[in-house]
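Dear Dr. K.,

Following up on our conversation at the group meeting, I've run the structure prediction for Methyltransferase from Aneurinibacillus aneurinilyticus ATCC 12856. I'm pasting the input sequence below exactly as I used it, so you can double-check it against your construct before we proceed with anything downstream. Let me know if the numbering doesn't match what you have in your notebook.
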Amino acid sequence: MCCITGSEQFLEDDSVDLIVTDPPFNLGFGGTTQTRTKKPRFHIIENDKLSFRDYQRFSLQWLRQAYRILKPKHHIYVCIDWRMYPFLFRWMQRVGFHIKNLIVWDKVSFGMGWQYRFQHELVIFAVKGAHKVRRVSTRNTPDIWKIKRIPGNQTCHPTEKPTELFEIMIQNSSQPGELVVDFFTGIGASMEAAFNLKRDFYGFEIDTGYYNDTIKRYERIHI
Ligand SMILES: C[S@@+](CC[C@H](N)C(=O)[O-])C[C@H]1O[C@@H](n2cnc3c(N)ncnc32)[C@H](O)[C@@H]1O
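The predicted structure tokens came back this morning:
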């Protein structure tokens, strides 16, 4: 289901304790290129190859929904890479979020990239509201997170994230039993992180194949 229509339909204003999400970066990425076929391993995910204007419209639409459903004073984490970061930063501000930090995810080993090869991604950390907002539950987490990436040949989704990345966000910005929402669930890394930490979870995924993979993952960890 689309996160824009889905959140509008199912989630009330000021009802969500935490949003963690990893939207399409609009890079038209289909996963690492296979040595044998010279083709990407996956199809390009939905909304990842839009004109700039359409990507802006799409981003503002889901961000407005995110702002609407998040409880005042609560946190949102949005993954992004360096190419789209300046735009997303402004769009998040435009819908009302106050940006608090930029987290650098150090993937420990490098992946693709021309010239210098990429070893990091970014996560924007923001809050809804300016005063007396929630604090992260630890003062011992720096803004660089060293978490091993999943090797390209072991992923089941072109932009699959390690569960630990979402676990840090959820651990630091919510309490057990609270509701965590992901607008772009992919194959369910955030769902697994929320489950491991005993949070309630609501996720949206537009691709039926990846949605089914998330359901299977849920069934696996529930047994
Ligand atoms: C960057 S990936 C998320 C990957 C995820 N973090 C994981 O580890 O599996 C973005 C996902 O958003 C989905 N998507 C794109 N447009 C969407 C929309 N309007 N509503 C819901 N999901 C959407 C894509 O199919 C893709 O799986």
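Two things stood out to me. The first helix runs from residue 3 to 10. Strands lie at 16-21, 70-80, 97-106, 120-128, 144-146, 179-182, 200-203.

Best regards,
J.T.
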